Amino acid sequence: MRPQKVENKELMEGLISVIRAKGYDGASLNDLSASSGLKKASLYHRFPGGKKEITEMVLAYVATWVENNITDPLTNSNVKPEDRLATALENINTLYDQGNSICLFRALTMETGMELFGKQVADGLKKWIAAFRELGIDLGYNTAEADKMAQEVLVKIQGSLIIAKGLGTVKPFQESLAAIEKMYMKS
């Protein structure tokens, strides 16, 4: 029997959905297999390191997406800061499915996930902060203000995703994105 063929993007999106929903400890190989479109044997063949390797690949995939669609646009000095912010917020909206998806970092800060992937989580958060800090500086805020605002962005995003999930409405997430835009565009 020929191995199943699954496009990388489709594979990663399926794997991401399980890890977001269940975290590292809760995601079983059966769940990962079902979401990926691959049989367990094919999943093992593609990821011989098992669930840990799958999670590492998911983190790398998401990190690349965030870099290409959020942090790089935020720091692109060839584009007006206002346009950079608009692009980043639009892509954040896409990343979190308009507020319907929880953050992969949140899912991996529980139990074993933090022990195994804490460095990747911390590095990812630092990149978000650095990019939003740079945007704030480019918009005329001093370094301390820009740093505080950058951290507030993450608080607003993460907090609103939890509230949106708990209340069953994306409204808090959408309102947070609007509040982030307003916070930066005050000057």
Describe the 3D structure.
This protein is mainly α and 187 residues long. The protein has a domain at 59-184: Tetracycline Repressor, domain 2 (Orthogonal Bundle). 79% of the residues lie in helices and 0% in strands. The protein has nine helices and no strands. It has helices at residues 8-26, 29-36, 40-46, 50-75, 81-95, 104-108, 111-138, 143-167, 171-184. Helix 4 packs parallel to helix 7 (111-138). The radius of gyration is 18 Å and the shape is elongated.
Condensed summary:
79% of the residues lie in helices and 0% in strands. The protein is mainly α and 187 residues long.
Mean pLDDT: 93
Biggest sheet: strands, sense, closure?
none
Tell me the span between the first and last alpha carbons: 63 Å
* Number of helical regions: 9
Total beta strand runs: 0
In helices, the fraction of residues equals over 70%
Rounded to the nearest angstrom, the radius of gyration is 18 Å
* Oligomerization state: single chain
CATH superfamily of the domain at 59-184: Tetracycline Repressor, domain 2
Shape: elongated
**pLDDT < 50 runs, ≥5 residues:** none
What is the CATH class of the domain at 59-184?
Mainly Alpha
At the third CATH level, what is the topology name of the domain at 59-184? Answer: Tetracycline Repressor, domain 2
Structural class: mainly alpha
What proportion of the residues form beta strands (DSSP E)?
A: under 5%
Keywords: DNA-binding, Transcription, Transcription regulation
Organism: Agaribacillus aureus
Pfam families: TetR_N (PF00440)
DNA-binding region: 28-47
